[in-house]
Design a protein that fits this description.
The chain is 34% helix and 16% strand. The protein is α+β, with helices and mostly antiparallel strands and 358 residues long. The chain folds into two domains: 1-54 and 73-181 and 218-255, Immunoglobulin-like (Sandwich), CATH 2.60.40; 263-355, Cytochrome Bc1 Complex, Chain D, domain 2, CATH 1.10.760.10. The strands form three sheets. It has a five-stranded mixed β-sheet, with no helix packed on it. Strands 4-10-9-6-7 form a five-stranded mixed β-sheet. The two termini are 23 Å apart. Bound molecules: heme C (HEC) and copper (II) ion.
Length: 358
C-alpha cells in the first residue's frame, strides 16, 4: 500500500510545471502562459493608474464630492473591441487544443482502466490487471475508463490530461507520450529492495527511491475528484516504455504466479496490487469491509438472515459474486472480480486468508 497523502514524484527541482512529457504539454502550457501574461499586462498599469488617480484627485476633508463624468465614445468603443480580440485569441487557442484532445488517432493502443474506491486497475488483456499504467513511448494511447462506485477523475500532470470517470458510462481520453521513462541500474534496484526488506517490512517505497518495484522512473497519476475517505491515497504511477518488447516483457511478468512463489505469498501480492486493502485490513481493524485477520474459519451472519462459515467456497463466492451473501453490518459495496481474477489467483487469495488465521 502507498503510504502518505502527497504526490509520489519529486518536484523539488521544478518551479511550477511538472515535466512536459506528452505532445499536449506544450500546447496546454503555452495557453496557460498566454492567459497569465495577458492578465499581468493589464493588471499592472490598471493597478498603478488606480493608486495614482486615488491620490491625484483626493479631496480635502469637508469638501463636497463632485462628478464630472461624461462620455468618451471612441475610448469606450476601443476598450470594448480591442480586448475582445484577446478573448477570441484565448478561446481559439483553447478550443484547438481541446479538439486535438478529442480526436483519437486510428493507430492508438487502447487500455481499459477501472477506478474504484480507492485505487486503479488497468487491464492489459490476458487476465493481467495492475494498478500501474504502463504504456509505449511515442505511441498514441487511449484509455477507456469506468468507475465501479462514485465519480473519480484521472489526472496525469506530466501529460496535461485530466478527465472525470462517471459511474454507469465510459469516459475516454488519449495522449501521445514523448519521453521514455529511464530504467535505473540493477545495483540501485537491488539496493532499494534490500532496504525495503530491512527497514520497511518488504514494502517498496516508490516515493523514497523515485522508481518503481521494477526499476523504472515514473510520472504521477492520481484522482482529482474528491471521492471519499482515502481519496488522497488514490494515486499510482505511469511508466513509459522505450520499446514494445520491454512493455510486453513487463506485462508478461505479471500474467501468472511466478515459479517458486507460494500461493499464500502471491495472494498477499494480489491483495496489495488489486486494492483489496482499501476495504479489508490485515490487522483486525474494521474498514469498509471485514478485516481478513482471523476471518477464515469464523462464523458469519448475513443480511438475509442466514448463517455460515468462512470457508473456501464462501470466499470464492464473495469475490466473484459479492452481493450473493452480504455480511450483516456491512454495505453491499464490494465490486465483483468475476473474470478479473483467475482460478489460481483466487486459490492464492484463499491460501493467503488461511495463513492469516493460523
Ligand atoms: C470497495 C470496497 C471493497 C473492495 C475494494 C474489496 N472488498 Fe471485499 N468486501 C467488501 C465489503 C463491504 C464486504 C462485506 C459485505 C459483503 O459481504 O459483500 C466484503 C466482503 C468480502 C469477503 C467476505 C469476508 C468475510 O469476512 O465474510 C471476502 C472474502 C472479500 N470481500 C474479498 C475481497 C478481495 C479478495 C478483494 C480484492 C480483490 C476485495 N474483497 C475487495 C468491500 C470490498
Ligand atoms: Cu477517486
Amino acid at each position: 500500500m502507498i503510504s502518505g497523502s502527497h504526490l509520489l514524484g519529486d518536484y523539488t527541482d521544478r518551479f511550477w510545471f511538472p515535466e512536459s512529457a506528452s505532445t499536449f504539454s506544450d500546447q496546454v502550457d503555452s495557453t496557460f502562459m498566454l492567459v497569465l501574461w495577458i492578465c499581468i499586462f493589464f493588471m499592472v498599469p490598471i493597478t498603478f493608474a488606480l493608486v495614482y488617480f486615488t491620490i491625484r484627485f483626493m479631496k480635502k476633508k469637508g469638501e463636497p464630492a463632485e462628478s464630472q463624468v461624461s462620455h468618451n465614445t471612441p475610448l469606450e468603443i476601443a476598450w470594448s473591441i480591442l480586448p475582445s480580440f484577446l478573448l477570441v485569441w484565448i478561446f481559439a487557442k483553447g478550443a484547438l487544443g481541446y479538439i486535438d484532445q478529442q480526436q483519437v488517432p486510428d493507430n492508438a493502443d487502447t487500455l481499459a482502466v477501472k477506478a474504484f474506491k480507492w485505487g486503479w486497475a488497468v487491464d492489459y488483456g490476458g487476465g493481467v490487471i495492475h494498478p500501474e499504467l504502463h504504456i509505449l513511448n511515442d505511441q498514441p494511447t487511449q484509455l477507456t475508463m469506468r468507475s465501479s462506485d462514485v465519480i473519480h477523475s484521472l489526472f496525469i500532470p506530466a501529460f496535461r490530461v485530466k478527465r472525470d470517470i462517471v459511474p454507469g458510462r465510459f469516459n475516454d481520453m488519449w495522449f501521445h507520450p514523448k519521453v521514455a521513462s529511464q530504467r535505473v541500474s540493477d545495483e540501485d534496484l537491488e539496493q532499494a529492495w534490500a532496504d525495503a526488506k530491512e527497514n520497511n517490512d518488504g514494502v517498496f517505497d516508490r516515493e523514497k527511491y523515485q522508481f518503481t518495484e521494477d526499476g523504472y522512473r515514473f510520472h504521477d497519476l492520481y484522482c482529482t475528484e474528491y471521492c471519499g475517505k482515502d481519496h488522497s491515497k488514490m494515486q499510482t504511477v505511469v511508466v513509459v516504455h522505450e520499446t514494445r518488447e520491454d512493455l510486453n516483457a513487463w506485462i508478461k511478468k505479471y500474467s501468472v504466479r511466478p515459479d517458486g512463489v507460494l500461493p499464500a505469498e502471491y495472494g498477499k501480492l494480489l491483495y496489495e496490487r488489486r486494492g483489496c486493502g482499501s476495504c479489508h485490513s490485515l490487522d483486525g481493524s474494521r474498514r469498509v469491509g471485514p478485516s481478513f485477520l482471523g476471518g477464515f474459519g469464523s462464523d458469519r451472519e448475513f443480511t438475509d438472515g442466514t448463517k455460515g462459515k468462512v470457508d473456501e467456497a464462501y470466499i470464492r463466492e464473495s469475490i466473484i459474486e459479492p452481493k450473493a451473501l452480504v455480511v450483516s453490518g456491512y454495505n453491499p459495496v464490494m465490486p465483483s472480480y468475476k473474470g478479473q481474477l483467475s482460478d489460481d489467483d483466487i486459490d492464492s487469495i484463499i491460501a493467503f486468508l488461511k495463513s492469516l488465521s493460523e
